[in-house]
Write a structure and sequence with these properties.
The chain is an alpha+beta fold. The protein has helices at about 5-15, 60-70, 140-150, 155-175, 210-215, 225-230, 250-260, 280-290, 305-320, 335-345, 355-365; strands at about 20-25, 40, 55-60, 75, 80, 85-90, 90-105, 110-115, 130-135, 180-190, 195, 200-205, 235, 240-245, 265-270, 295-300, 325-335, 350. The chain has three domains: about 20-90, ATP-grasp fold, A domain (Dna Ligase, domain 1, 2-Layer Sandwich), CATH 3.30.1490.20; about 90-215, D-amino Acid Aminotransferase, Chain A, domain 1 (2-Layer Sandwich), CATH 3.30.470.20; about 225-365, Succinyl-CoA synthetase domains (Rossmann fold, 3-Layer(aba) Sandwich), CATH 3.40.50. Strand 10 and strand 11 form a beta hairpin. Helix 3 packs across helix 4 (about 155-175), helix 8 packs across helix 9 and helix 9 (about 305-320) runs parallel beside helix 10 (about 335-345). The longest helix has 21 residues, at about 155-175.
């Protein structure tokens, strides 16, 4: 479960990490007064708010109300901002990145720091990123925070502040069952204070039984994501134009990697899991229709799943859809020959392997 920025900052504050003072509102009229310059920030679970106009500075209460009016109801990459965070503006001298996440390849937590704050960590050069594994048997040690502060180039006083924040961030991750706790940017103000300028916290959904307070939170879902959740279909919206339907998380991720390798970009993907229920497959296809991709890549590996029953659901959906969207179909496993013939007869583009399917889908998407 992803937390909104204001809730993530509440959690940071709970563990002693400094954050700007602020308040959350859902109507501009709720802003009665402010003490000094503020930032009015859209509360959506997606990056790129600033570029989309979802973060506006304000000097007075009247300006803050105007900013809130402009942001509330704003559509940012499919997410509607229903609330805004109004918080004190920081007098920024420097910005850094700090985060702790799970490194599944090492089976441990990973402390990440970079002197390039305010950027997506994925776009920062590797030589500008410190990644320090945290041994699960030993846990976090103070030297790790000192190492992170030294890596980003902080002087002694600010380095001790950052080192303390690293330890508190580790405590947050372990006690709150967080998969990610990220401060980007971690701000050094002109008067030498180290403060969390932004915050992202993701709680492990399988651990929510230990944290009843999070169960009360409303998830920020797009209309399509809400429909998928109601249908118990794993659905993720990205920014490309290829719609992916696969069965199983591993196969889905491998499909996305293959698409990237051939120059395509996935826009949405649906994970059918182990189902071969034609009705569920049909529902997935109709969800895909609403997402309006330029091309669809169907990648099914049938073990428990029977390929012909998946094909049946696909064909039923296409009858209702009357689509002209190209569909590349790669299907393997139980009853694959029957399924392949069923799909081929419906005009789909056949592929014998994953790479072939990804290449064909990428070429179609670039036409």
């Amino acid at each position: 479960m992803k937390l909104f920025e204001h809730k993530a900052k509440e959690v940071l504050k709970k563990y002693g990490i400094p954050v700007p003072e602020g308040f959350v509102i859902s109507s501009p009229d709720q802003i009665k007064s402010i003490s000094g310059p503020v930032m009015v920030k859209a509360q959506v679970l997606i990056g790129g708010r600033g570029k989309a106009g979802g973060i506006i500075p304000a000097e007075t209460a009247e300006e803050a109300r105007k900013a809130a009016k402009a942001i509330i109801g704003m559509n940012i990459k499919g997410y509607i901002s229903k609330e805004v965070l109004v918080e004190g503006r920081l007098d920024v001298a420097k910005e850094f990145y700090l985060g702790i996440t799970i490194d599944r390849s090492r089976s441990c937590l990973l402390l990440i720091a970079s002197p390039d704050g305010g950027m997506d960590i994925e776009s920062v050069p590797e030589n500008r990123i410190l990644m320090h594994p945290i041994d699960p048997l030993i846990g976090y040690q103070p030297f790790m925070g000192r190492k992170a502060a030294g890596f980003v180039g902080l002087p002694n006083d600010q380095a001790s502040q950052m080192s303390a924040i690293c330890g508190r961030l580790y405590e947050l991750v372990t006690k709150e069952d967080a998969e990610l706790a990220e401060i980007n940017p971690l701000v050094v103000t002109k008067d030498g204070k180290v403060i969390a300028g932004d915050a992202k916290v993701t709680i492990d959904s399988d651990a929510l039984f230990r944290h009843q307070e999070y169960n009360k939170l409303v998830e920020d879902l797009t209309p399509l994501e809400q429909k998928a959740k109601d249908l118990d279909i794993a659905f993720v919206q990205l920014e490309g134009n290829i719609g992916v339907i696969a069965n199983g998380a591993g196969l889905t991720m491998a499909t996305l990697d293959s698409i990237n390798m051939y120059g395509g970009k996935a826009g949405i993907f649906l994970d059918l899991g182990g189902t071969d229920d034609p009705e569920k497959v049909k529902s997935a296809m109709l969800l895909m229709r609403e997402a309006n991709p330029k091309v669809i890549l169907l990648n099914i590996f049938g073990g428990i799943t029977k390929c012909d029953t998946v094909a049946k659901g696909v064909l039923e959906a296409i009858e209702d859809w009357k689509t002209t969207v190209p569909i590349v179909a790669r299907i393997k496993g139980v009853n694959e020959e029957q399924a392949r013939e069923m799909l081929k007869s419906a005009g789909m583009i056949p592929a014998s392997g994953l790479n072939e399917a990804a290449e064909k889908a990428s070429k179609e998407s670039l036409r």
